[in-house]
Amino acid sequence: MWSAPVLLPPAGYRVRAPLFLCYPRYIILLTIKLLRQLSLPALGGFLLLATTGHGQDDGQDDTTARRASGPIRPAAPAGQVAVAPGYFLFPIAPGQPGFLAASMGELRPNHFHGGLDIKTGGGVNKPVYAAADGYISRLKQSAFGYGNVLYITHPNGLTTVYGHLNKFEGGAGAELLRRQYEKQTYELELFFDKSQFPVKRGEEVALSGNTGGSAGPHVHWEVRDAQDRQLNPLQWGGFAEIQDHTGPTLQTLAVEPLAIGARVRGRFERAVLVPRLQPAPGAATAWPDTVTCFGQVGLLLQGFDRFDNAWNKNGIQRVTVRVNGQPHYQHIIDAVPFPMGTRQVNNFVDYAYARTGGRTLQKLWVEEGNDLPFYTPPGLGQGKLDVQDGKVYSIDLELADAYNNKATAHLVLKGEKPADYVKLPGAATPGAKPKLTYDISRNLLHATVLHAPLDTAGQPQYLLLRRGGRQLALRPSYSVGAATTYLYDLRAGLPDSLLLGDVHQAFDRQAMIAPGQEINYATPYANVVFGAQTLFSNLYLSTLHRPDAGPTAPESWTVGTPLVPLYLPLRLTLKPTTPPTDRARTAIYSVSANGGRAYVGGTWNEDGTQISANLKQFGQFRLYTDTKAPTAQLLGRAGGQLTFHVGDDMSGLASYKLLVGGRFRLLRYEYKNATLFTVAGDTLGPKLRGPAELHLADQAGNEKVIQLSL
Ligand SMILES: [Zn+2]
Predict the structure, then answer these.
(1) Gyration radius of the chain over CA positions
(2) Which of 33-42, 548-557, 560-569 is predicted with the least confidence, judged by mean pLDDT?
(3) Residue 127's domain spans which residues?
(4) Ligand 1 centroid to 212 CA: how many Å?
(5) d(CA 629, CA 651)
(6) What is the pLDDT, as a whole number, of residue 214?
(7) For residue 370, how far is its CA from the centre of ligand 1 (angstroms)?
(8) Global pTM?
(9) Are residues 264 and 401 in the same domain?
């Protein structure tokens, strides 16, 4: 394990176990309070030690540095853009029935879907029309992301975005081709002013495609405001082309305890409520059983919406919660700040649960670190419920789509204060040996002991948390069958180990990292630099360094867990025990549990002892040296054009260039089927005849030139 700074209570502070065992609850509460007070100066000291001047000259790219210091989102609230119904023309086959594959605001990995996915009948090269008068303000040709994308800015300040296109029409497209030849590159982005390429509503501006990160032919269509917020295009009365009389479907409702004293059905565990039957049209989904809970709890839901005559599962625009008839919570997904706010989806849903193959549950409260403009009124914590003993909470949910079709649900919570220790019925678990496991959520250590040894009163023994020579005894909170749960607020200080009877387990988190500040967590093997907006909430960081153990297990670094999302990237610096000899071709790769590896990249420092890269996700990392150049194979000459299949064993294709008789000819790259190809109608390039060279390079800088005779 990495040696690392950990916070310790001041010297002279001693806790003796026997004291705890004699005076359990009172002393423990007092101790937690004490620890909390005492560890504050220690925590401050730790941060002071661990913080370095992490300025703009630390190698982070400009964009990240600028974003880290800038505002999270523009000040203007959502829903202030007035657009007359009918202002926008439906950009694909206007006047005919249209179909959507996705709605705006759908919950995707790492982003809210930013616009409408308009179906194009399963094919490409369908005309794409300007949605309103304006001018082409931006064009980008890329093999990734939005693919080939066109932006039209309108006189009202809004911009419409048309993504995954095949071909740009008109003067702007010709200008792009000219500049691609000038710069000898396919990947290019151009910005235009008002006077260059004005367009009229209904003018054909492009042909549809399947370029970039697209899973099938369609046009991704967005409306953005002047602050680059992605707006729901259906919020101004919708389109006659898109019919929707179908309300949302509620799949799951869940109730979750949010604080150490909170319980749901007596446990510190989420209750997942799946309706047994879908309700009759117009009727509410209801659960006949009252759910007992106590303390601070939150609701979560999983659901989808459908448009008429399409089977795609789309997003729900609005969710409203009423408690005992009173308004309690509402969110409307009609404006997502781009590009930063869209990553808030990882905080809007239960990220770990969605990643581990569970359901995508959206939280019906404003989570810590959530700055999305979805809430009226805005405010942290809004939506949380404080359930009191003996009180009844009648919950009514309303789910609505962009056309205001609705679904409702009803659930009753009843407050029931748990005793200090509760034995709940549960399945008998075979075996008698104590077994200790733990996890961490919301600042809480949640330890479960199977077959905990009992004390003289027949209750499970206290769990001891050790740090250095000190220890803290935790009373059991409740047992379910043979499993006993212990809860501890880690803000009072991190233990080194957990102990119960003969069971001793090291605690694998070395530090608490708070959001909102720049922190350099430095160890002999690596530095992890957190920016002010890297984290959504407190992180309990685990790091692990494994030395080189031969060719199948080279040196590795594990930083955190991929189940905790990052908002902005962190900066990872690895200090390998033996710096590689071929540094130029050696980079950081993330490795998965099943042995897969993905190129991350990295920049070496001047003396070649450290390599740094920005990470969007926690995980396990290794250094690999890529010495093999990319490969290519001419697949054929269909229609007189060339198609190559390309491959690279490790770092991936970084650049490509086709020269025919020494002259540049534009190639397009399609990563989805690993092909490079020329296109017909390219008036600027040389004819595909005679001697030619295909130049390829990978991310590690390995180059290859393939000689061809066309
Ligand atoms: Zn899309």
Answers:
(1) 29
(2) 33-42
(3) 100-231
(4) 11
(5) 10
(6) 93
(7) 23
(8) 0.86
(9) yes
